[in-house]
Structure formats: structure tokens, C-alpha cells
Inverse folding.
């Protein structure tokens, strides 16, 4: 990997040391070019016009969906563009036809975006079981298996923890879900930008991720949906009565067990095949879920981000991050008064490049402010949208968190460690 060539695509890295890619990544020039080129050269709405310019816009937007689906090995499913991973998860939470007594299994490691949508379903009588990790952020598969019973409709968990960096054995989880007949939603917001994620290998039914964490524009996210046989064959017709709230649904209309068919979050223009007096039929594929004018430039930009990641090589990016993370962890572990949370330097396979730590006598926000003021180093601090996990770990003020990506260098890590040594000495 030619790191200097990569860095020249991200001019912003010359002004700062950006160690907050888990919050949102930086954007390379080719992605910016793709966005501007849409606005400058072929701006038109998608899925509507017959004139040439509209056809070009539509084709590029459609191509972006294909690229994204291909990137996760999900050509035979549907990649729906959303605003972010949060919207993707909410789409599933709102869209499945829940009934009272259904059970969802999730974990205490989850980002609020993969917890609150399930918590809210308690209002319609859905039970939620939350499996706790150990202090390193590892979920014991035996605990997960115990939590899944006959009523479990869905298991929702993250691949890589945004708070502790721990990677979960998702292939095993996929196998367990298949054996038990539960749907599997994988939150890949933190893994997919950094390592190969393949929905066929994992065997998940829904894959949610953020375009803006994988070099794409802000306002881009994805929900990939495994195509269920039922959905393949059936034209999705929605009568007005069926659309009025989950609870008023006629139970006879319930989908087959294991069906991934979900109702769209919004209905309106651009997503219908036909509209009659008492209902409407929804287009197949992503269009059925993207009512109204979508964020076309964000979608096209996300397609360009996938091209970029493929060109650099996702495995090369992963290797680069493993090397940097090991160096970072070794350095952190050598600083007196500093504690790393999550797997350490001796367990590289268990973790990604998201590294949480604390310094005795300092609040996480103080550490982040000192780094910023002293050396323009950007890290995240606080609870990382994981309040239940922080409470479980007894970390009242959360942690300081550095997160890496393809544009970070050894020199940046050394400078970061040097700053932390000084901060820890002064604390
Ligand atoms: C693991 C995880 N899931 C979900 C989200 C939510 O992503 P978004 O901000 O794109 O909605 C995040 C964001 O940090 C995350 O780290």
C-alpha cells in the first residue's frame, strides 16, 4: 500500500492527525469528484425522467447500489440506501411484522443505534434479551445460544465494537441463527470499512452500515437485505388497512418464518408500481424502500468510495491497520497511569483499530482537549453512544478513543504516543 499516494487523496491530513474515523471517515478526492461531477454534469432526478440526462443519473445511481451489494458479496440481495446505519436498523425494526411475544436477542456492547430501535418494540409486546460481554467485550457463544429460544425472531449484534474494538465471531453467530431459525441482523458499521465482510460467508439476513464511515459522503448508509423466496415471487401489494400500524395488522397476513420481507419506513413517490383506490403495490428492489427523491449525490459518492476501497484493496487496508494498531497498543500499554480497555496488543485477531483508554486523574474529555490543543490530534471521548456498556464496565465518564484508517501512519502514532506520555506524566 502506497501510503503517501493515499494521503495525497486526503489533503486534510496535512493539517491534523485524524484518529476519529470510527465516528466518520475522511473523504478522498475521487469521491468528491464523483459528487461534484453529478452536480456539474448530469444532475437530474432518478427513477422518473425518460430524457437522456435523467437516464444517466438513474444509471449511475443504480450502478452505485450494484457496487455496494457486490462489495459485501450480496448481489442476490437488495442494497437499500439510507441516511446512516441508524436508519438502516430502524428500517428493519419498524418493517418486520412483529407480534406480541416475539423475542429479539442483542448484546450490551451495542451502539445505541442497535439497541434503542429494539427497546422501542417493547411497546408492541416484543421481548428483548440483552447478552452481556466480558470486560474485553467478548460475547460468549454459549450465553448467546442460551438466550435464543423458540420465540426468538431476530438476533441483532455488531461485528466490531465501536467502544472496545472487539470483533465478534459472526460466522458462528450466523450458524447458530440458522440452526435456531432466527433472523440475523449484523451491524457492520465499524467492520465493513476496514476488513472484508461477506454476507454469504457470515450468513446474515440484514447487514447495516454507514457509508460515511467508509470514505463515502455524510448522509449515506446502507441496509442490505437477503432476498427471501417469498419476496422474490410475490408482488408486494399493500392495502391501506395493512399499513395502519403494526399492531392492527391481521395476523393471517404474517410472513413465513425466516422471511426478510419488511415494510418500507416511508411511502410515497418513486416507490410504487401501481396505486388503486384502496392501496398500492410497491416496486421490487431498492426503489421500494427509497420513497421520495433520495440523496442522489451521496449514493453516487458512496459508489465511488467502494471503487476506491477496491482499488486500494480491503485486505491491504486491514493489514495496514493491524500493524498500526499493534504499535499503538504496545505504546499505550507502556505508559504509566494509562489503562487500555478491550483486547490488548497480544490479541490482534480479537480486535480492530478502535482503541479505548483512560488516564488516571483525567477525564476522557480532558485528554481529548489536551491532544487537540497541543498537537491538532483528533480523538473521540465520552460514552461513544454506548451508555449501558459504559455503566456495565463502571466507566462513568466513558473513555478516550483513538480509531485508525488507511490514511494514518506510523509517524502519527508515534506523535500521538509522545503526547500521551507527556499528558500522563502531568496528570
Ligand atoms: C457499531 C455502530 N453501529 C451503528 C452506528 C450508527 O451509525 P450512523 O451514525 O451511521 O447512524 C455507529 C456509529 O458510530 C456504530 O459505531
Amino acid at each position: 500500500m502506497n501510503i503517501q499516494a493515499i494521503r495525497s487523496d486526503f489533503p486534510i491530513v496535512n493539517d491534523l492527525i485524524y484518529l476519529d474515523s470510527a465516528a466518520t471517515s475522511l473523504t478522498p478526492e475521487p469521491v468528491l469528484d464523483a459528487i461534484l461531477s453529478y452536480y456539474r454534469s448530469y444532475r437530474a432526478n432518478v427513477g422518473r425522467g425518460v430524457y437522456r440526462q435523467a437516464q444517466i443519473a438513474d444509471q449511475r445511481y443504480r450502478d452505485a447500489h450494484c457496487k455496494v451489494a457486490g462489495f459485501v458479496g450480496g448481489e442476490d440481495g437488495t442494497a437499500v440506501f439510507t441516511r446512516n446505519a441508524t436508519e438502516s436498523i430502524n428500517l428493519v425494526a419498524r418493517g418486520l411484522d412483529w407480534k406480541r411475544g416475539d423475542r429479539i436477542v442483542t448484546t450490551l456492547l451495542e451502539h445505541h443505534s442497535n439497541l434503542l430501535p429494539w427497546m422501542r418494540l417493547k411497546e408492541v409486546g416484543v421481548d428483548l434479551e440483552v447478552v452481556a460481554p466480558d470486560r474485553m467485550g467478548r460475547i460468549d457463544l454459549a450465553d448467546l445460544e442460551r438466550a435464543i429460544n423458540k420465540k426468538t425472531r431476530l438476533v441483532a449484534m455488531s461485528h466490531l465494537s465501536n467502544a472496545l474494538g472487539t470483533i465478534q465471531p459472526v460466522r458462528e453467530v450466523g450458524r447458530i441463527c440458522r440452526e435456531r431459525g432466527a433472523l440475523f441482523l449484523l451491524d457492520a458499521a465499524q467492520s465493513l470499512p476496514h476488513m472484508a465482510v461477506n454476507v454469504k460467508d457470515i450468513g446474515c439476513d440484514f447487514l447495516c452500515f454507514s457509508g460515511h464511515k467508509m470514505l463515502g459522503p455524510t448522509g449515506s448508509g446502507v441496509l442490505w437485505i437477503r432476498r427471501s423466496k417469498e419476496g422474490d415471487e410475490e408482488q408486494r401489494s399493500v392495502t391501506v388497512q395493512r399499513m395502519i400500524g403494526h399492531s392492527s395488522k391481521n395476523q393471517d397476513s404474517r410472513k413465513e418464518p425466516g422471511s426478510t420481507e419488511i415494510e418500507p419506513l416511508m411511502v410515497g413517490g418513486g416507490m410504487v408500481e401501481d396505486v388503486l383506490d384502496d392501496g398500492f403495490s410497491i416496486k421490487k428492489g431498492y426503489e421500494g424502500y427509497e420513497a421520495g427523491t433520495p440523496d442522489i449525490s451521496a449514493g453516487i459518492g458512496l459508489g465511488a468510495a467502494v471503487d476506491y476501497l477496491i482499488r486500494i484493496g480491503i485486505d491491504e487496508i486491514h493489514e495496514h491497520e493491524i500493524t498500526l494498531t499493534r504499535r499503538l497498543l504496545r505504546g499505550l500499554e507502556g505508559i504509566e497511569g494509562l489503562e487500555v480497555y478491550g483486547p490488548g496488543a497480544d490479541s490482534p485477531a480479537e480486535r480492530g483499530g478502535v482503541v479505548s483508554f483512560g488516564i488516571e486523574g483525567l477525564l476522557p474529555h480532558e485528554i481529548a482537549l489536551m491532544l487537540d490543543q497541543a498537537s491538532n490530534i483528533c480523538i473521540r471521548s465520552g460514552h461513544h453512544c454506548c451508555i449501558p456498556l459504559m455503566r456495565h464496565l463502571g466507566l462513568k465518564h466513558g473513555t478516550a478513543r483513538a480509531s485508525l484508517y488507511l490514511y494514518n501512519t506510523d509517524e502519527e502514532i508515534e506523535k500521538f504516543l509522545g503526547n500521551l506520555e507527556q499528558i500522563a506524566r502531568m496528570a
About this structure: The pocket of pyridoxal-5'-phosphate is lined by residues 84-86, 111, 113-114, 158, 162, 187, 189-190, 210, 221 (CB under 6 Å). The radius of gyration is 22 Å.
